[in-house]
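> @MW can you paste both from yesterday?
MW: sure, first one:
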Amino acid sequence: MRSVKLTLAYDGTAYAGWQVQQGETTVQEVLERAIEKITGESLRVIASGRTDAGVHALGQVVGFRTETHLGTDVLRRALNAELPPDVAVLEAADAHGSFHPIRDAARKRYRYVIDDGPVRDVFRRRYCWHHPGRLDHAAMARAARALLGEHDFRSFETAGAARKDSIRTVYEIRIRRGRGGDPGVGEPCEFGRSQAGQGRGGPPNLIAIEVEADGFLYNMVRAIVGTLVEVGRGAREEAWVAEVLAARDRRAAGPTAPPQGLFLVRVDYEEIC
């Protein structure tokens, strides 16, 4: 038996999330079906994290054990031939025998994209949260500093996923404003066109919020985004975010941002092979 590590990209719009669910189409289901068709093995794959319905991935990491002797490049090409067009294997690699995508993950990075232009962009609706009012992204960035470091992030956790504790370390929160196509801001939802002045030549209506941590609680990024938007729209002071963190109570924080603006950017490992 060998261990294989896959790096996936997927558009989560059509899926009920990552995890297999009865009566629903999920990313895990279509990947396992493709693996079975190629290798003849009915097996279960493990992802670095379970993305929710509508959430996307630029670099999801998946691991599984297999008897196949296919080379990793052949396996990648074969899987991409079987997978639907909204899921792609970016890389396949052999991993050490005990490799586990969850336990071995050192850091994860998520990006959330907001469009605060005056008119919703119909071509970005699946990849951005449209907030119809200009946000003060600089105030959001200043408020986010309170979340850096090791803290109890219970205020930013939605009930529903059992965790041993809610202590996490946030290494970086980066908030940038830009136009579609600007590096690290609009490329996940950019289509190389301009609508109502919102393309490359229009105003910078996209805000990208990137969070990197040693791990995340259920809906943690979306709760952080919803809380920072309260600051950005002027409903709360910048110091409020620190108060929310100290409260350790989900009711103290802002709303959970909708799923379509969230992208799992990458997962880092200390040792892969």
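MW: second:
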Amino acid sequence: MELLEEMEYVGDIPEGWKWVKLGEIAEITMGQSPESKYYNDKGIGLPFLQGSKTFGYKYPEIEIYCSDPIKVAEKGEILISVRAPVGDINIATQDICIGRGIASINSLFNQNEFLFYYLKHSKNDLLASESGTVFGSINKETLSNFPILLPPLPEQKAIAEVLSSLDDKIDLLHRQNKTLEEMAMTLFRQWFIEPTKDGLPEEWEEKKLKDIYVFEKGIEPGSKNYLETPSVDAIRFIRVGDMLDNKADVYIKKDLAGNSICKFDDLLVSFDGTIGRVSFGIEGCYSSGIRKIYSEDEIYNKLWLKHQIFISEEIQDEINMYAEGTTILHASSSIDYLSFVLPPKEKIKEYDKFFDPIYKKILHNKAQIQTLEKLRDTLLPKLMSGEAKIMNNE
């Protein structure tokens, strides 16, 4: 399955494709919540999902278990959120107890991978089907009647194979980065945390972060200046919510950005809304709710050292303590209260020799992830509509 060919077709759908209802090609099981007394976080019973809170792009994380499951989605079945937020889609990596916020979908033709991507592509149509004046929901009848534009079985398999291969590579890179970050955290603790447990070693000192780092505030151009598509005279605009997955789908004119520009290896920390969120590996102009953190001293400007400082729970908790606001929290622009214990500069230089290869690999993986995600997101609507066809060169 190597080539993608743009294809033209006569009429509303490609030749050989047909409209069907989801209930005609899949078994749908609505979740049912067991009594809360059966919930636990000790791994007793089956993994339990009440809703889509721990969904990833394709696979869920598990935090809660249930010792007396009622409804079960088997490994490989599609999981879909049927209560707000409606339409989130994942695939079960093991048998999972599903609560009333989740339904499972199992293809009658062993094509769950294709259906997963089709429903992912069709989320806006699912949202248009939701009911409920406050929370929103979809029921089994709505799911059963949901229209699916179905290609012939060989094309379903080919489409799923192409998209799955991209997601498998993305998932591998994410797992590599998680392992690398854990290695770096271990190194950091060994070099900078453990030596201070019994007091400050000789030549170590506590410094205020404002004396080491610049906290550069971003800009707010106003939503009226947001652009939905990129262009040669536009730049990506990063908001606090975009820091979660290092994505931003809003742009602004470059002449509005001023000096609020971040490079791929710059460190960003959120000071509004979700306070203390840390991100790097994204380029663009950043909002007024974000600070770019850097030092004029190159030794202190080593990214991972800054990164470790600002993801420490103690620092984040401290920023939150000084935040104000009832609906949206705003961290204090004064950072006099932030300090950190630092070793001599030679110690930092020595540590960086160990860490630098890890950091470079993390950044390389992040760049690959973004390239692959962009390719996948470009292909998805084309493949699901038949606009692009996979050429079989086996």
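> thanks! Helices lie at 22-25, 112-121, 123-128, 140-144, 153-193, 303-311, 313-321, 345-385.
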